[in-house]
Write a structure and sequence with these properties.
- α5 packs across α7 (163-170) and α10 (205-216) crosses α11 (219-232).
- The longest helix has 15 residues, at 183-197.
- The protein has 3 domains: 14-176, no CATH class; 183-222 and 231-285, no CATH class; 333-442, no CATH class.
- It has helices at 14-27, 47-55, 68-79, 84-93, 104-114, 145-155, 163-170, 173-176, 183-197, 205-216, 219-232, 250-253, 278-285, 428-434; strands at 64-67, 140-143, 333-339, 342-354, 357-369, 392-395, 403-407, 425-427.
- It is elongated.
- By secondary structure, it is α+β, with helices and mostly antiparallel strands.
Amino acid sequence: MTSRLPLSLPVLSPEDSDRAVSLLGRIHDPRNGGAPGKPYIPRTMAASDVEWLRTVGLDPWAFVTLSHDAVVESVVSSGRGWSVEEGSRAFVSSLDGEDGPHGCFLEAVLLAHAMPAHALDAPDPESASAWCRVCGLAPQLLLEPSEMFLSWKRNGSGIPGAMDWMLVALAQRKEWGAREPTARARALLSRALATLDGLPPEASPGVAFEAVREVGFSKGAARSLVETLAFVGVLEAPPHVGMATRFVSFAERERRPSVRVEVDAPLGFWRGRDGVQWKNAEALFGLQKGTPPPPLEPARPAKKVARKKAEPVPGKKGRAKTLPRRPPAAGDVWSLRVREDAWVLVYVWSLAQTPRGPYAVCEFVGEVSAECPTQVPAPLEIRPRYDGRWQQRTSALEKTTGSALIAEKVAPPLTKAPPPDRVPFGSGKDLSWLARACFDSLE
């Protein structure tokens, strides 16, 4: 599809979309590290798969850098080309989709119609952490289209009002602008509003998320819908209002009643007693208070998509056999998968009995391996952190995805370094993330 906006996502067939999500999920796995324009491509991924991503417009190496002023100009000029009705229709039509909801369609249009043209308004524009009080942008916005495509398909459209998602939404007018909401999508929205308007007076945003979830949304979709309704002004707690009432700056949206509140204004201040702002609900969606919600049609069965299997990597073998899985014991050596193509070794020094259960005192040893190791290297050497030896009291090592017992009753590693002064508690999953502090090759 074509767009004059500086960022857009490709339109793929269901089969290709499914394949792209699978491949990009492996590349943009948080465990891989990497940086914008410098992704880590697992060695287990075939070169032909990476080349296919590039041909469909999802080059993992591609990134876009935009200035604050360029983003603001693009969002305002393109967003004002949409009517509020078009933005509302696109948003509602996403409510019964497989990769929605996409509140950014309506958010972007309201923001574009209300936001004034402005220069960067930051207390310290030269600071690396500077952000604009009007729109929330940094002096420069760095975007990875392939990662945004993955997030769009998996999670919907991100934090309400985030300017990167405004760009993505507005660039999809050709695909989404003419969509008509299904009867089920309209019924879901109507039922969600009726539910929110009938919550107990002290109901918090968390209670609202759960109530909307019971209407027929997933956990993530329910939260996304409620946050969008607050951003656009359907859930307000005056004087904290949404975009359909007036323009609300990023600085104002950042206000919260306490540091424990995780959602932006107006939702952070909203309680059940505030109910639904039906004036805005009628203006945006044509819904009125007291109108019985229409019948809810059954969900459409998920389409079966024929998945193309990832091509095998030449020379790659199946996973080697390991010892039967059991709770850890002193003298064990476990392998732990820390990313798709990297395994490390963990030595169990002892078991610590606590009121919370047994914890294995673990320490990284050996080297990084591209495949699951089945033998313990000799001599067995510890892997210190930058500040000396590091150990962890680890729970549920045997239940951790990617862990495997490869040896038992192994003699302790030889070392003259003193043990750490402090041994924190953690889980086997924590070890997967902390390994890069002890293995330079994982950085």
